[in-house]
Design a protein that fits this description.
Layout (H helix, E strand, L loop, with lengths): L12 H8 L6 H5 L3 H8 L3 H15 L6 H10 L5 E2 L4 H6 L4 E2 L14 H13 L10 E6 L6 H11 L7 H9 L1 E5 L3 H9 L1 H8 L1 E7 L1 H8 L7 H23 L4
Length: 253
């Protein structure tokens, strides 16, 4: 949760803008600085900086909850804990569908339909809750230039012809899916770390990265010295931010 933006830690806008000029935008950026460094960049006293540290620490600290509270929250509305894939056998294996609030990794040999599955799930997330959807927007990060808008419309029309019975509905659905083509590990990580405010402003209910393995294979040859450590660092940082986003906003990633 250290990836939380300082704006959401209830600091003043003026202070956030001042910190931003020093590339301090997240709780982690703020908490990694010493008291003297914070006094310098904020222009505040030792006592005031200590109060800021407490405020930011509380804002990004995970909220305590009991096992009973977790179970109760899911049992009150079990459908909200999953995004159904509409594939009965798969939903059964997944105990309800793609889980909200956590990361789901899809793996298979090339050509087995991972991208098609991701496109289908994108359509499902835009559907109304009454139809098993999440009634929200989707952020789709495409690292292989494999996403096809034509295929998206075709899947929507074929799977749900009664709902997508007009060009207007198809148009609204396509406007809810925000596509980013990021072809390097650096650009993928940068995009992931900038998603928090976009999730809020666009009411995003699903994040898809298709695929992490693609950019990792292109950039890291594990036979070369040091590459294994760099790859592990990239994957750990990316997974940490995505896990935070999934848990903070209770969305499937």
């Amino acid at each position: 949760m250290a990836a939380k933006k300082l704006r959401r830690a209830r600091l003043s806008q003026e202070l956030c803008e001042r910190l931003s000029r020093h590339q301090i935008t997240t709780c982690q950026d703020f908490l990694c600085l010493s008291l003297l460094e914070l006094m310098k960049v904020t222009g505040q006293s030792y006592y005031d900086v200590q109060k800021l540290l407490c405020k930011v620490s509380r804002a990004c600290a995970p909220k305590m909850q009991t096992a009973y509270e977790m179970k109760l929250r899911k049992s009150v509305n079990p459908s909200s804990a999953f995004l159904s894939t509409t594939l009965h056998s798969l939903d059964k294996v997944l105990h309800g569908g793609v889980p909200c609030g956590s990361l789901t990794e899809i793996t298979s040999p090339p050509g087995c339909g991972k991208t098609q599955f991701c496109v289908m799930v994108s359509v499902l997330a835009t559907l109304p809750v009454s139809m098993g959807g999440l009634d929200g927007a989707v952020i789709y990060i495409d690292t292989e230039s494999a996403f096809s808008a034509e295929r998206l419309i075709e899947i929507a029309g074929n799977r749900f012809p009664a709902y997508f019975d007009s060009d207007e509905k198809l148009f609204c659905m396509t406007r809810s899916i925000h596509l980013y083509r990021e072809l390097t590990c650096g650009s993928v990580l940068k995009r992931i770390m900038s998603l928090e405010e976009e999730i809020i402003s666009k009411k995003v209910k699903l994040i898809i990265i298709d695929s992490v393995a693609s950019v990792v294979r292109k950039e890291f040859d594990t036979k070369l010295q040091g590459n294994l450590a760099e790859r592990s660092n990239f994957l750990a940082r990316g997974a940490s931010v995505l896990k935070y986003l999934a848990e903070e906003f209770s969305i499937p990633v």
